[in-house]
Amino acid sequence: MPLLATSQTSLLHAWHCDGTLSEGRLGAVAYRRSEDFLFGVLSLPEAGRGMQALGFAAYRDIFACLEREGMPQLLRFWNYLPRINEAGGGMERYREFNVGRQDAFIEGSHPHLAGSPSACALGCGGDALVVYFLASRHAPLAIENPRQLSAWSYPQQYGPRAPTFSRASLLQLPTQEVLFISGTASIVGHESVHPGEVAAQTQETLRNVEAVLSEANRRARHGRFAARDLTLKVFVRHAEDVVAVQRVLEAELGKDLKIMYLRADVCRAELLVEIEAFGFLGAGA
């Protein structure tokens, strides 16, 4: 995903934790873990397989790794699909992926409706499905958005299986809280709004982020999350739109933001921008 104009010259996302770290591999999954957390990644070349089969294989390996390592709680997934909006196997490739992903959740007896983890799904280059994930011994709270129908309840017009994710996950530790906001776009209820208007879509996306923050703040213990304090990752479908997107975000949140802009396809062809974020409260925030 090409890096676009940013308000900072460079930004690196790195997760830090206390204690001794170890690393390993199981199937396609490579990971590093502490006593309480595990971060993993896999990359599966398509090699003639459809996206449904690929999604199922990826998540089957992930769940096998988490079971072996004793990390049953899923915090966050990052899914990157080549040619996400193209047709394949009789339906859009993202919809194919949703079938395989949910099949793996069901087979592994993981929550695939209410209580599913936060996630995103973006189009990427190359010919491999890439998945990053963060798991823990600590169970997060699933957060939904009252402005949107929960993704796992979408009607069948979006495919035979609904996407398996919650709008956000709130991890509450004794001295710190971490909020993982899923990929968020210009969707109200279950419908995309403001087609062809990237500035309006960005504003609508921010309204959805604020709604998620409001729900998370009702349950937060160490203060309140604020949009301008989040670390943001912004995906823009057309590189030339990044100036308009940046203008809206800086007008709404200010210029001193922790933000990264990337060129990527969003999971619905009519959506022009998507925002994901995370934030901290309490010790080390």
UniProtKB/TrEMBL annotation:
Residues 14-135 form the Chorismatase FkbO/Hyg5-like N-terminal domain. InterPro entries: FkbO_Hyg5-like_N (IPR049368), RutC-like_sf (IPR035959). Gene3D superfamilies: RutC-like. Coiled coil: none annotated. This is Chorismatase FkbO/Hyg5-like N-terminal domain-containing protein. It comes from Uliginosibacterium aquaticum. The lineage of its organism: Bacteria, Pseudomonadati, Pseudomonadota, Betaproteobacteria, Rhodocyclales.
